[in-house]
Amino acid sequence: CQYEFEGNWTLAASTKELEDAEYKTQIIEMRNLDSKITQKAIAEKLGISAGKVNTLIKEINKEKKVDKVPF
Question: What angle do CA 10, 16, 22 make, to 5 degrees?
Fold first, then answer.
């Protein structure tokens, strides 16, 4: 939350959320260029752990499923 000094509070994305969003974008781009790239290779290129890459890929896949839900 952030306080605007006018008596209002607003929700703001945390640094972690912003970093994760950037990592997700980079992961999607890497996977588009090379569909067989490993999580380990992605992790090495981004400088993060393979476990973090795995978590982000799961979130990406979950977001794709939500986008495909018909109304």
Answer: 105
